[in-house]
Specification:
This protein is mainly beta. The protein folds into two domains: 215 residues, Jelly Rolls (Sandwich); 126 residues, Jelly Rolls. 4% of the residues lie in helices and 40% in strands. It is built from three helices and 30 strands. Strands 5-29-7-8-15-10-13-19 form an eight-stranded antiparallel beta sheet. A hairpin with a 3-residue loop joins β7 and β8. The longest helix is centred in the last third of the chain and has 5 residues. The chain is globular, with a radius of gyration of 22 Å. The mean pLDDT is 95.
Length: 384
């Protein structure tokens, strides 16, 4: 997110002596992206952030592919993913390619005896059910239903949930996640026509500054494996930081829809972008107001991208027999559009209450074994 944020105590100048009351130094760390060319944050630690005592278990979490080449439209019944106690074990990759993983998770418990760091990918976690607090080494953010949590790669974090009934839709991106470029001016400020602005972005608001020594387990994701590393100091020991690289939250309920006299194309719903896919938000909005308008989307061919739609809430006007938690996959190369009767039903309607998250990838997605467990394999015939 290209704007500046400061939290806690920092010295007046970078890379200079910053001392504690006892005269010893705080330890500076540059936390940056794309070498030294991307967004970065300078943080100051009670202890050296480099003290690894032990490397323990290492195991693969690479998704098992069921269909590597796919031309078939699918519906996945997302709420059939079983709840599990542990956060990492609850994460099930259902769709994947070399740019991203699309994950469903239903964790019952907060992250307890370990911290987590994804060094492979940025994470965009959509909160479908549940509330709580995202705790990170760069500060904490409260979350609730409808929030996107954007966690840049390398952030050390925990998720604390208020209840056991939690449902998450997660996109792991091997490319940096940004707000769409066309929404920003040359300086990075969000423009007047953007469907959200900086006031809608919730940044970390509190630091947990621990100065403890001991055995602290960080489960690190690296090249599709989890590696358990034991550090000698508490990873949440930052006294302050400033910069542009930090986690943040944005609520889908704060997305202001762009509407018109006739049906608007999907890019008007775009919320995040990478060089390999986009994420869009479909929110309650007024329908098209041309006197002869057809509110239902027109049939269209995904020639260059796979379309994934995660249904969150409301009435999904263009689909028959779709429920909250369902995922539709419409692969590149074949046309799709409203289900039979949907076009006719839409005429004369003035608004919709639908809520959904869409991911359009520029490379084909592969279905995993976890996806096939919850797949409706007759969905592609639902236009007959």
């Amino acid at each position: 997110m290209p704007f500046y944020h400061q939290l806690g105590k920092i010295p007046p100048k970078r890379h200079t002596q910053f001392r504690k009351k006892d005269g010893s130094l705080y330890y500076e760390q540059l936390f940056g992206r794309i070498g030294f060319d991307g967004m970065s944050t300078n943080s100051y630690h009670e202890q050296r952030p480099t003290m690894v005592k032990e490397i323990r278990n290492q195991y693969s979490i690479a998704p098992k592919i069921a269909k590597a080449t796919n031309i078939q439209s699918y519906r996945l019944r997302g709420f059939q993913i079983a709840s599990e106690n542990d956060y990492l074990e609850s994460r099930k990759v259902v769709l994947t390619n070399s740019d991203c993983n699309i994950i469903l998770a239903a964790p019952k418990e907060s992250t307890k005896d370990y911290f987590y760091k994804n060094t492979d990918a940025d994470e965009v976690i959509f909160i479908h059910k549940g509330s709580g607090k995202l705790r990170t080494h760069l500060g904490n953010i409260d979350f609730k239903y409808g929030d996107y949590l954007v966690i840049p790669r390398g952030i050390i974090y925990k998720l604390d949930f208020d209840t056991e009934n939690n449902r998450l839709f997660i996109v792991e991106s091997y490319h940096p996640v940004y707000t769409p470029k066309r929404y920003r001016n040359w300086f990075g400020q969000l423009l007047e026509h953007a469907p959200f602005c900086e006031r809608d972005i919730r940044r970390p608001y509190e630091l947990e500054t621990n100065n403890e020594l001991g055995d602290f387990i960080i489960k690190v994701k690296k090249q599709g494996e989890i590696i358990e590393m034991v550090y000698a100091s508490h990873p949440f020991d930052v006294i302050g930081y400033d910069g542009y690289n930090f986690p943040y939250a944005f609520s889908i309920h704060d997305f202001e829809p762009i509407t018109g006299r006739i049906h608007q194309p999907p890019p008007v719903h775009q919320t995040f972008e990478t060089s390999a896919f986009v994420i869009c938000s479909f929110v309650p909005r007024l329908y098209d107001y041309h006197p002869q308008s057809i509110p239902a989307p027109y049939n269209h061919s995904n020639i260059d991208s796979d379309e994934v739609l995660y249904y969150v809430d409301g009435d999904f006007m263009s689909r028959n027999d779709i429920e909250a938690g369902h995922i539709s996959l419409h692969p590149a190369g074949i046309p799709h559009g409203p289900h039979p009767g949907a076009t006719e039903r839409s005429i004369g309607k003035t608004s919709t209450e639908e809520l959904a998250v869409m991911v359009d990838t520029f490379k084909p997605l592969m279905l995993t074994e976890e996806a096939m467990k919850i797949a409706d394999e007759t969905y592609y015939q639902s236009w007959l």
